[in-house]
Amino acid sequence: MNILLFNANELSASGHLHITDPRRQAHLTKVLRPKLGDTLRVGQINGYIGVGTIVNHTAEETWLEISLTQNSPAPLAVKLLLAVPRPKMMRRILQTCATLGVSEITLLNSAKVEKSFWQTPILQPLNVYNHLILGLEQAGTTQLPLVHKAELFKPYVEDKLNHWAGPGRRLVAHPRQAQACPQASQQATTLAIGPEGGFTDYEVDKLVEQGFIPFSLGPRILRVETAIPVAISRLCAL
């Protein structure tokens, strides 16, 4: 935890934050071990960053006086169109996307996505939120990515994708018959990443119809959880 995050409704009118939930309190007690008067880096989710001064701390609760003075680093101008990965990867991918600063994620169905993947508890809203928070804590930022679901490939791609992607580059990672990876840019980018085994040719053709350009990350086939940070680091001026 490189920053202590909190929601706006947790902050009192006097500017004090009261921590009692087990996860944050355990980290404070067992890892940070703050003393009266110590300061911690804090941030309001989707808001400012600042410092919190310890005014009371026990094993059960912590009170901090909060001062928010800095803007959080802005999210990248990157939207990720992601075929739903295996549940065991989903946790790490959500955290990685939040850490890297992805602004929005649409989880998309694909021919190679097993139906059971959509039923995993990890995709329940609270669990998605919690993993995104872990990623923000790692990065020391506050801007929470938006997450959407598209459980039908063809209707979403044909009817909604163009509006969601908006202006800017549209790229799909695809190792076959693809151009070399474009240079890093600050241009708004919508990046499509397929499932293990990649999008089918039909799916790639449908994405191309919506203005997506296939590109390759090189001769090696990467796992989805590896392809995402590699692609973002190569495409974006971080």
Gist?
This protein has 238 residues and is an alpha/beta fold. The chain contains 7 helices and 12 strands. The strands form 2 sheets. Strands 8-7-6-11-9-12-10 form a 7-stranded parallel beta sheet, sandwiched between helices. Strands 1-3-4-5-2 form a 5-stranded mixed beta sheet.
Q: What count of helical segments does DSSP give?
A: 7
Count of folded domains: 2
CATH arch. level architecture of the largest domain: 3-Layer(aba) Sandwich
Output mean pLDDT: 94
Helix/strand/pairing class, anyone? alpha/beta
Distance between the termini: 21 Å
Can you give a write-up of this model?
Helix 2 (87-100) packs parallel to helix 7. The chain has helices at 22-32, 87-100, 125-139, 153-159, 161-165, 201-209, 224-235; strands at 4-6, 16-19, 39-44, 49-57, 62-70, 78-83, 104-108, 146-150, 169-173, 179-180, 189-193, 213-216. The longest helix is centred in the middle third of the chain and has 15 residues, at 125-139. It is built from seven helices and twelve strands. The chain has two domains: 4-70, Hypothetical PUA domain-like, domain 1 (Ribosomal Protein L25, Chain P), CATH 2.40.240.20; 78-235, SPOUT methyltransferase, trefoil knot domain (Alpha/beta knot, 3-Layer(aba) Sandwich).
